[in-house]
Amino acid sequence: MAHASPPAPRGPHRPARAPRALLVAQLCHSIGDGAFYVSSALYFTRIVGLSTSQIGLGLTLAWAVGSVAGAPLGHLADRRGSRGTAVLLALTTAAAVASFLVVRAFVPFLVAAVVYATAQSGLAAARQALLAGLVEPAARTEALARLQSTVNAGLAVGAGVGGLALHAGTRPAYLAVFALDALSFLACALLLRGLPRVLPAPARTNAAGGEPSPRVLRDRPYALLTLLNALLLLRLPLLSLALPLWIVERTSAPGWTVSALFVLNTAAVMLFQVRTARKVTDLPGATRAVARSGVVMCAACGVFATTAAGLGPWTAVAVLVLAAVLQVAAEMRHSAGSWQIGFALAPADRIGQYQGFYGSGVPVARTLGPLLVTTLLITWGVPGWLVFGAVFLAAGAATGPAVRWAERSRARAGERRSPAEAGAAL
Known about the structure:
Helix content is 78%, strand content 0%. It is mainly α. It has two domains: 18-193, Up-down Bundle (Growth Hormone, Chain: A), CATH 1.20.1250.20; 217-425, Growth Hormone, Chain: A, CATH 1.20.1250. Helix 1 (18-48) runs parallel beside helix 5, helix 5 packs antiparallel against helix 9 and helix 9 (257-278) runs parallel beside helix 11. It is globular and about 60 Å long.
């Protein structure tokens, strides 16, 4: 792929406009995704005629493939250039979404969903590698917090657009949403294309003269941290799946409480994620943030469980709001800490590969989370909430020892670098 703009410098002076351009690119595709997320399931069931089990199976398989593809595509970004790889994967995502316009059966739906999930997972890794090349190490966590706030804002706007399609309930309305999402990824690709080029990391060869297999697969401390992060990300289907079912089936709270809690979560992340991330500037601070997030999330699960105790409608609403506040506080602490950990422990020449692997927790949570949370929370009830909370508590507490193990392994291998050295190597 040809590059019109000059390479981004690897020294201390990075382009000031890069984070803003990344923000706009993120905003574009999150608006499209927000509209797609709220309307796609009903389109495929009501308009195309797929069963809910077919949709569930298709998405499970798609995100399972996506979770495996993240690390290899991140490795590609490291070796071929993160900007070009990100542009290519944004275009691939746009094509996958556009293909949904003509899907009329399960097999084409499955193929399109696999391409979509794979490209999304790879795009996330390539964007992380691109951000690492354009933003100083000390500023990355705050930059990611701003990106997360932007994503939430875009999803909220997109959800409103998707709501209009749901209200209309016609094929043209749904197809307009898919077209909007495809165009949003095209705009994202154009914006990413305009960023400075980040020089690819030089390939390392093994004794046989070939490039070794992705090193992250042999990095046991980092693999453990990826697993712990995936466990903490099981909160993802909580707000969109488990809580709506819990509120309707197990509490006396009115149905509109579901929307109120979603708005509360989105607004809190938009307003406070950056402020929370500013407090996390190093690995000790990151491990404390993740450990505290586990404690707070465990408390949130306990509070959610009490709403099954026959509370009156308004009391149930008040307790649910309290639990949702605890949940979003835990979410923001975990996000800030995990971003710092994921970047700080990744070798400077393998950011994309390591971020692709670390980010596999998101598709894993999307794949396994729905079944797990519905079984634990809806089927088991109060005991399930307590088990769920214990998982967060244990995963948060285990993160500190895992980080220290990773630091020791890097120190023994002579790979530990200061932030200034890591920045100069990028």
